[in-house]
Design goal:
It comes from Dethiosulfovibrio salsuginis. By secondary structure, the chain is α/β, with parallel strands linked by helices. The protein has 4 helices and 8 strands. The protein has one domain (2-166). The strands form 2 sheets. Strands 3-4-5-6-7 form a 5-stranded mixed beta sheet. Strands 1-2-8 form a 3-stranded antiparallel beta sheet. It is globular and about 45 Å long.
Length: 176
């Protein structure tokens, strides 16, 4: 199953189901109808887990200077990690309300940054999500099992079974 977000596509070869969750076209079957909520780009289901996948592409050769400045300012001031966290939380809530979260959920992000920025962004997003891995005595389960950020190179090193690649496509001027 190949899912595409602008110039990036990922082949989730062994997925049971998957969709572009950030669907904005009312005429498409996966349109979620709540525009105020943040949404991850993809939701992919496997036999034992569900992946929430968010993609940001500041490394796109056609990214505008304005878009890049906005991206890097948001990375530096923490707004970007808050946006990533909000996308997970709202998407989780939406899928919970649909009763579609019976498996462990992982939050995986593909951001075309230099590798040196990836651990920092992973840590910043994780801090804004549930206390996964920490003792929460009254919780029977945690919303997210793990949150990681990869670029194309590290994604393909860690997930060779789900190859990601840049393809020809168009980039919206306002987003990277």
């Amino acid at each position: 199953m190949i899912l595409r977000e602008r110039d990036i596509e990922i082949d989730f070869t062994d997925a049971i189901d998957g969709m572009v969750f950030d669907q904005m076209d009312r005429n498409r079957p996966n349109y979620h109808s709540i525009g105020e909520m943040h949404r991850v780009d993809f939701i992919v289901e496997f036999e034992n887990a569900i992946l929430f996948v968010e993609i940001k592409d500041p490394g796109n050769p056609r990214a505008t200077e304005r878009g890049l400045m906005k991206f890097y300012n948001e990375l530096e001031n923490g707004t970007l990690s808050s946006t990533f966290a909000s996308k997970f939380i709202d998407s989780f809530f939406y899928r919970w309300a649909e009763d579609r979260l019976s498996k462990t959920v992982y939050y995986i992000n593909l951001v075309t940054l230099d590798s040196e920025f990836l651990p920092y962004l992973s840590d910043e997003i994780s801090k804004k999500l549930s206390p996964s891995g920490k003792n929460a005595p009254r919780w029977c389960r945690h919303p997210v099992q793990n949150c990681q950020v990869f670029n194309l190179e590290t994604w393909n090193e860690n997930f060779p079974q789900w190859p990601a690649r840049r393809i020809e496509g168009e980039l919206d001027e306002e987003e990277v």
